[in-house]
Description:
Blueprint: H1 11-22, H2 35-52, H3 61-81, H4 91-94, H5 97-147, H6 158-163, H7 180-184, E1 201-204, E2 221-225, H8 228-234, E3 254-258, E4 263-266, E5 270-271, E6 280-281, E7 285-286, E8 292-293, E9 308-309
Antiparallel strand pairs: 1-2, 1-9, 2-3, 3-4, 5-6, 7-8
Helix pairs in contact: 1-2
Amino acid sequence: MNKPEETNINPVEAEALDFLIAAEFDPTAIQRMPEHLRANARRFLAELQSINSYPVEPPSNALIDATLARIAQEERRQSQRMSFSNSQPSLRKRLGIPNIVAVAAMLIVAAGVAVPLTNQVRQSQTQLMCANGLRTVGSGLSAYAADNRGVLPMTAGLGSFLTDSTSTDSGIIENAQHLDMLAKNGYCDAKCTRCNGSRSLSYRIPMHESQKNLSSMQRSPVAADANPVQAMVRRGVMPVNFSISSQNHAQRGQNVLFSDGSVIWMVTPNLSNGPKGLFNNIWVIRDKNGIETVNLRANPRHALEILLAN
C-alpha cells in the first residue's frame, strides 16, 4: 500500500506561516512582515479565503417552511401516541431526529461563540499574569536599589555593550540577564524575570550615568516584554517598521514597567512624552540625525534616550 505523499514547506514559508499564526491570521499583519515573507503570507491567506468562500446554496424559504411543518407534524403524532404506562421509553425513542438536529445546531452555535471567547480570556489572563510579574520585578528593583545606594542591577558597564566582541553588529548582547541578579540575590523568585515564567523580558540600557540610579531617574520605562526588533535582527531580518509590538503577546501590545513601579499596557512601543518631550520608540535609538537605529554605537540624540533590550 502506497504511503500518502507528504507536503513539505521551505523555511521561508514556515516563517511566514508562524508570523500569521502569531498574528491570528490578521491580514493587516502582512504590512509588519519583512518583505521576503509577504508573498507567501498573502498566498496562505488567499488559500484560506478560498476555503471560507466555497459556494454553498442557501436553503429556500419553501424548504424551510416544509421542514418546520414536518417537524410540527411529527411532534403532534408523538404527543398523540403518548401513554401513561409504567414502562419508561428508551433514550432512542425519546430523542427523535428533530431533537438531535436541534441539539447539534445549538452545540455548533455554542462552539462558535465559546472558542473566540476562550481565546480572548486566555490572552487577557496571559497579559495580566505578565503584568503582575513585571510589578514583582519593579518591587525587586526598588529593594535592590535601596540596598545598593540607588544603583540598578548592572553586571557590566555601558562600555562592554559597545565593545563586546561577542555582540552582533547592532551592539546588543544579553542585556536582560542583568535582571537575573534580582533572583540570585533573593529579591524575587527565579521566574520573576520571565513573562509568565518562560517568555523573555527587555531591560533598559543606560545611555547616561543618571540612568543607572533609580533614585535620580525621571519617570520612564525600565523593563518590558521582549524587544521584537532585536529578535528579528538576530534572525537576520531587518524590520521595515520599528513600531511593532512584542511577540510575547502575539504583537497585540506589551506590558511596560516604569521607574515608579507602575505597569502600563501599551499597544505601540512609542512614547509621546519621552525625554525633553521628544517622541521615543523604546525598541530603538534615535541618533543625532533623527534616524531610528538598533546600533548601540550610534550617538543618541539625547543623553536620556530610552532603549529596552533583551
